[in-house]
Amino acid sequence: METFKLGVKPCCYSLLLAVFGLLASLTSIADAETHYHQFVVQPTPVTRLCRTRNRITVNGQFPGPTLAVRNGDTLVIRVINSAQYNVTMHWHGIRQLQNPWADGPEYVTQCPIQPGGTYTYRFTIIDQEGTLWWHAHSRWLRATVYGALIIYPKLGTPYPFHMPKREVPILLGEWWNRNPMDVLRQSQFTGAAPNVSDAYTINGQPGDLYRCSNKETVRIPVDSGETILLRLINSALNQELFFAIANHKMTVVAADALYTKPFTTQVIMIGPGQTTDILLTADQKPARYYMAARAYETAQNAAFDNTTTTAILEYKSACKKGLQPSRPILSQLPAFNDTATATAFTAKFRSPSKVDVPTQIDHNLFFTVGFGLNNCTRPNSPRCQGPNGTRFAASMNNVSFVFPRRTSLMQAYYQGVPGVFTTDFPPVPPLQFDYTGNVPRGLWQPSTGTKLYKLKYGSSVQIVLQDTSIVTTEDHPMHLHGYHFYVVGSGFGNFNPQTDPAKFNLIDPPQRNTIGTPPGGWVAIRFIADNPGIWLMHCHLDAHIVLGLAMAFLVENGVGASQSVIPPPADLPRC
Ligand SMILES: *[C@@H]1O[C@H](CO)[C@@H](O)[C@H](O)[C@H]1NC(C)=O
Ligand SMILES: *[C@@H]1O[C@H](CO)[C@@H](O)[C@H](O)[C@H]1NC(C)=O
Ligand SMILES: *[C@@H]1O[C@H](CO)[C@@H](O)[C@H](O)[C@H]1NC(C)=O
Ligand SMILES: *[C@@H]1O[C@H](CO)[C@@H](O)[C@H](O)[C@H]1NC(C)=O
Ligand SMILES: *[C@@H]1O[C@H](CO)[C@@H](O)[C@H](O)[C@H]1NC(C)=O
Ligand SMILES: *[C@@H]1O[C@H](CO)[C@@H](O)[C@H](O)[C@H]1NC(C)=O
Ligand SMILES: *[C@@H]1O[C@H](CO)[C@@H](O)[C@H](O)[C@H]1NC(C)=O
Ligand SMILES: [Cu+2]
């Protein structure tokens, strides 16, 4: 744990640009520090796939700077918006206890930082360690505005596994040749699905299976026999991904900054928003091996980006001879629709030991999650380019979430501004139907609203998230802000409240902050509502959140200051 730097000479090529850039800030860190950072959100020329285009970045870096802190540290990040778009910043997976003001989703916990504006996010890491990340939470800006957020244990606290000397953040991303904000704008105009990306990326680089990307392919040097830690983050906008390393097994030790019982695997499935920490031992013949990622796509008949991004795991001894580097060995990745592999992988996650799962449930919630289609009065209009002259929609419990514009939910709540939201989000679907069967077309059009579900401080909550087959079934990576939760069960088809709870794992279920609904199935989660504030729950595919696949919890204050939301900072942006 002493050295976080890649103190290595690259072998086959001259520079390890991307890896060095990412690890630049990972120098040794003292105990309980306050870290001051300035994030300038600005247009920056970025060259990918043969063309240079302006993209919104933080401090001109893509991916953005890595934040490296310790459990117990405080972060003070002054965000200066020098871009032409509204922006907010989210610290994905940080619990932000009593402090929704630092959470970031626009119009939920704050108004956006407008062009020319600034806002300083202040928060303390309380009892969390592992791999998280930060990203813009404003329309589709996070396509290029994201970075790793690594939390080391407090000084003197060991990892529950042998700490490798070398560790590498691996940020999976998605790249559009067109400005992602224009891709979003076009789909919001037409009502059709947004154009798919042109490439996936590893640490910002597509890799050498794409044109013009050969020289910049990310390289990770290893010594034969050593074990390194990969901190894998899916920062792609809209795509779950399979990830594998040719000829190498991986040992998963944590996910979403929560330790897991270690298990080995040949392939990882990771949804947007999720992180996975992997131990990798260089125990193969010295050579060059691809690490690669490509789509896990569950929607039926949907267009998706069918390309493969690569980086190269390079045994140093394989490169010493000064010869032309050999072509890397290709990784085996599952087929794009291999739900069996994805499901088997997700089922392997366990907490390291017995955990304290809530068993007395105060709120037994059942939320349908899925698509819808809105009919048009003029189906031939350019604004109705969805299937058969409709517009795509999405909802939870048939409510397509409408984000307020006048103010944020949290500001309205704190200041008692009426008329911004209601607290009647339904605990169960307003209509029972065969959720994963042949749903009658008349039920496909959701209602709209800004509905919250109210929870008393300290109450225990179970949510069954049930995918629907309206338009298509799909794996929706559902993210809850302000919390992590136990994943106690999952299955295919309709959840059966009589028989399925008996199969729940109440001993050592994994904890996560983002979990996918199996396509045409359900997943059950539990948590204690011990963090007051308004917390968004949404699909982490940004193509879906903008269709309304979201809702929010209003967790009331408990007793006294230690169970209440702190006052908002003076510089909180106003709408
Ligand atoms: C989306 O794709 C269509 C079809 O390829 C193309 O005509 C259109 O210009 C694209 N729009 C954007 C914003 O990428
Ligand atoms: C994806 O690409 C591979 C080859 O790169 C091809 O074999 C496969 O059919 C494609 N799948 C889809 C769904 O387009
Ligand atoms: C996956 O898609 C291919 C077509 O690309 C199809 O032949 C195959 O049956 C599908 N597999 C599953 C499990 O749906
Ligand atoms: C669109 O219309 C065609 C022909 O009526 C029908 O077969 C298809 O299922 C419809 N698609 C949707 C998504 O409604
Ligand atoms: C939308 O249009 C479809 C196909 O024309 C129809 O079956 C359905 O009932 C309509 N839905 C509503 C809510 O009007
Ligand atoms: C959703 O609400 C709309 C509007 O009230 C209704 O037409 C539709 O049938 C509902 N669908 C479901 C699945 O509840
Ligand atoms: C930016 O935010 C302000 C304040 O909420 C809002 O009035 C404005 O419309 C937003 N601009 C865009 C382009 O969304
Ligand atoms: Cu989704």
UniProtKB/TrEMBL annotation:
GO terms for cellular component: apoplast. It is an enzyme of class 1 (oxidoreductase). Binds 4 Cu cations per monomer. Residues 41-154, 167-317, 424-557 form the Plastocyanin-like domain. Belongs to the multicopper oxidase family. Its cofactor is Cu cation. Its EC number is 1.10.3.2. Lignin degradation and detoxification of lignin-derived products. It catalyses: 4 hydroquinone + O2 = 4 benzosemiquinone + 2 H2O. PROSITE patterns: MULTICOPPER_OXIDASE2. The keyword Metal-binding applies. One of its GO terms (molecular function) is copper ion binding. The lineage of its organism: Eukaryota, Viridiplantae, Streptophyta, Embryophyta, Tracheophyta. Its main location: secreted. InterPro entries: Cu-oxidase-like_N (IPR011707), Cu-oxidase_2nd (IPR001117), Cu-oxidase_C (IPR011706), Cu-oxidase_fam (IPR045087), Cu_oxidase_Cu_BS (IPR002355), Cupredoxin (IPR008972), CuRO_1_LCC (IPR034288), CuRO_2_LCC (IPR034285). Residues 1-32 form the signal peptide. It is found in: Secreted, Extracellular space, Apoplast. It holds the Pfam family Cu-oxidase. This is Laccase. It comes from Morus notabilis. Keywords: Apoplast, Copper, Glycoprotein, Lignin degradation, Metal-binding, Oxidoreductase, Repeat, Secreted, Signal. It comes from the Eukaryota. One of its GO terms (biological process) is lignin catabolic process. Gene3D superfamilies: Cupredoxins - blue copper proteins.
